[in-house]
Amino acid sequence: MIKDIFTRFLDKFREVGGEFYNSLPEFIDKLEDKRIACEETLVGLIMEVLEKEIDFCKAEFAFVSITRPKALVAETGSLLFVYDREEDFKLISLPYVHVNIFEGVPVFETLEEALAQNQGVYVSVVTGPSKTGDIELIHVFGVHGPGRLVGVGSLK
Amino acid sequence: MKLLPELKEELGILLNNRNLRVALERVISRYVKTREASLSILGDFGDIRKRLVDIKDSAIDEAYSIWDSIANRLEERGTFFTELADAKVAREKILDVLKENGVHLLIKSKSITSEEIGLNLALEASGIKVVETDLGERILQLMGDKPSHLIVPAIHRTKEEIAELFSKYYNEDIPPDPFVITKKVREEFRSYFLSAKAGFTGINVVSADPTYFYLMTNEGNGRLCATLPDVYITLAGWEKIVRNLSDAIFILKVLPKSAVGIDFSSYVSIFAAPFRWKDGRKWYVFVLDNGRKKAREDRYLRHALRCIRCGACMMVCPVYRVLSGHGFSKIYMGGIGVIWTAITQGLEEAAQLAELCASCGRCNTVCPAAIPISDIIEEIRFRVGSTNLLEKYAPIVVADRRKFSSLGEVRRIVRLEEEGSFLEWAFKRGLLDKSSDTAIYGGCVVEEFLPKVGIQSVILLEKLGFNVAVSGGLCCGLPLRVYGKKGEYLRCAYLLKDKLKRYKEVITICDSCYSTIVDAGFENVKPIYEFLLDSNLVFYAREPYRVALHIPCHTFSAGREGKLIEFMESVLNIELIRSEYERVCCGGAGLYRYKYPSVSRAIFDVRKDFLVEVKPDFIITTCPSCLMKLKDDIKELHLDIEVVHLVDFILNYTNLPL
């Protein structure tokens, strides 16, 4: 059976250290720390689907960030972000848990196709969580960027 | 230039640093396992190289116009663009920008180009605090230490040492746990990222159209340095360019695979002008020449401008493996480091490093940009001239037998293995230069030190029914070549070629000779195992011996290792004890072992534990020089392992087909 492009993306996304959940509540409800920062356009939607109380805050103070990538890349399992606002850079860089809504996001076969279609002054290609092996080659996640990179299939 | 005894002392200290050696072994043996599989995702290695060479060469060809167009596009959109002629100018200009913007704290992402210009020292001397944000670099910065590895710079430090450092630094008890340490550093760095006025990064690739700057990190520090402060400074080497997006992406894909055997880096950040989103935000792009433009016009050094800084060459380098970036570098490490030192600091500075290279040529075989690293090092040696007495005389020794006995100096150092002469033996039997279709060529090491191997090869082939001559000709020229005696080498190679061409087929019993003869353009030559393989003979070892191979570096660089293994398995019917150590240089490297005995011994010792544990009955090799070296070291270890040349083994330990 030939896997569809999203499934191939997902296989790769998991291979590089990403975690996948079917829906946003499925992941967020389990979290203890509910300090959440998200893209402006997502605030309303998130408030609708998350019933329990959330503490919306700025990225600097958040434990979790929620974003919607501009594109997904099947060959590398990467997420692509095209941003031109400082608040948005912080969302993908600062909180320890970075949650991404995959619903409705186009999947490209190759990185080249994805980048050709999505241009801007700052494009960030994210492939797995932040990691290092600098101390005795022991793998540690979450050095300066997120230690957990999460994808959710849908908002609800 | 440093004097040799001083260097030797320094090397001794390094070689005795057990932490360093153990740590490097750990990185390298892991790397060897993952790299090939990782690269194979991109297809055939030959095709990867072809594409990379094309990408970089075409960009370097157009470098001036590419940079013009990049500069125009950046300036049109309000980005500051400055070309830097050399390290001094670079330090001054960058300092000017920081002063102009009132910067007191600079956050920095690992950049070897910044090390090349000595940036940190210059800035700190002017009162600007520099914080290295890469975890490994940060550890070294706080320790006042220098990197031992290109990708894992603090690999020589144990977690206990690092915990002790941070316990002092944070003035609290930090356990030797990488997770705790990393978390602590993460917390501390948050305030730097959010408060620093300026950020600094190097750059991995720059594409002309679209005009993009690409930065890769795994930790995520690069993009924070680039996006959060108001002032962002990019320092790009002049050679970092490619023409377009697809060329850039290809490099981004090759780099992590070739560097550490991982598929892709966690973060690729792509910056385009104006790279600005608020008033007061400024982007400064600096492009560093520092010898690169001159290298472009040099037909040897030019190739090195293809370098994508993956460090694959270091991982396979036997000298780097024991000396690390501490002993085998001047900022740029390993074999490619010799060349980059020549480009950025000049030939004189590179001379000492060039001598440390063992000329095994393994770097050439793994470079994804097909840079002929060891050939360029030979050229550097040629240009600076040899400085060492042994090097000066040794080539004469091997090239001209008559002068040999008059050189007491060398004679004392190079112990004679056996008495006698292969060529004299052949002459007495009427085999020397006799007319025949097939001839054996022995080479200088066989002639001077191991005549037995030459004699055995003739007896073996005669027993198998072949009518062989023995070709005269003392030396293929390899020792001359590696010691930078280019004229003598070419003369030597030419004379030998002239002698060999009277035969339809020449058989070698030394793979170093083989590879040199092939390089000289002589085609009708085969190593003896390949000759026997093509003759469809079958041998059987007399007993189920436990046999390991030692594949000489030149067997590998001449692409013959497949044939050798095939011969062992399908013709000799031996189940070899395979391991990664079969292809690790023995440390002999011709005269290298006499020049740097302690380094040479350490290179051998890489396989010590393996040999002690596995204890094969035989180690078989196809290079007389490796044979001598392995025999000596194994004898010193008191290991009961017989080291033999392949022809010796076939003749004495197999049942010959009749």
Q: Describe it for me?
A:
The complex is a heterodimer of chains A (156) and B (658). Chain A is α/β, with parallel strands linked by helices and 156 residues long. Chain A has one domain (5-154): NagB/RpiA/CoA transferase-like (Rossmann fold, 3-Layer(aba) Sandwich), CATH 3.40.50.10420. Chain A contains five helices and twelve strands. Chain A has a six-stranded parallel β-sheet with strand order 1-12-7-4-2-3. Chain A is globular. The two termini of chain A are 29 Å apart. Chain B is α/β, with parallel strands linked by helices and 658 residues long. Chain B folds into four domains: 6-10 and 301-385, no CATH class; 64-288, Rossmann fold; 392-533, Glutathione S-transferase Yfyf (Class Pi), Chain A, domain 2; 534-655, 3-Layer(aba) Sandwich (Rossmann fold). Helices cover 53% and strands 13% of the residues of chain B. Chain B is built from 36 helices and 21 strands. In chain B, the strands form six sheets. A six-stranded parallel β-sheet of chain B has the order 1-10-7-4-2-3, sandwiched between helices. In chain B, a hairpin with a 1-residue loop joins strand 11 (329-330) and strand 12. In chain B, helix 15 crosses helix 33 (597-605), helix 17 (347-356) crosses helix 19 (373-384) and helix 29 (528-534) crosses helix 31. Chain B is elongated, with a radius of gyration of 27 Å. The interface between A and B is large, with 41 and 58 residues. Strand 9 (122-126) of chain A pairs antiparallel with strand 9 (267-271) of chain B.
